[in-house]
Amino acid sequence: MLDVANLYLWCWDARPYPYFPARSDVWGDAPNYQCGHWLNGRLGAVALADLVVGALRECGLHPVMM
Asked: How many helical (H) and strand (E) elements, i.e. helices and strands, does the chain have?
């Protein structure tokens, strides 16, 4: 369970997705979106289980599948 009283989103970008990052003629940092830290437009892009498995593998750990 998450304690939602202590849940914070860092760096929520106020620019309108998908115009940001699509409008690189307006925003010079649009190419950084692929590997940047913005949350908007990304939260539903991957299933939580896949995210956890990816994070474990990136740390050199092997996830246990049940």
From this structure: 2, 0
- Residues near 27 by beta carbon (within 8 Å), at least 6 away in sequence: 15, 20, 21
Question: For residues 34 and 4, what is the distance between their CA atoms, to the nearest angstrom?
Answer: 28
- 54: enclosing H helix or E strand: helix 48-58
Q: Name the DSSP letter for residue 47.
A: -
Pick from 36, 35, 38, 34: nearest CA to 15 = 38
pTM: 0.42
pLDDT digits (tens, 9 = 90+) for 17-27: 889 889 999 98
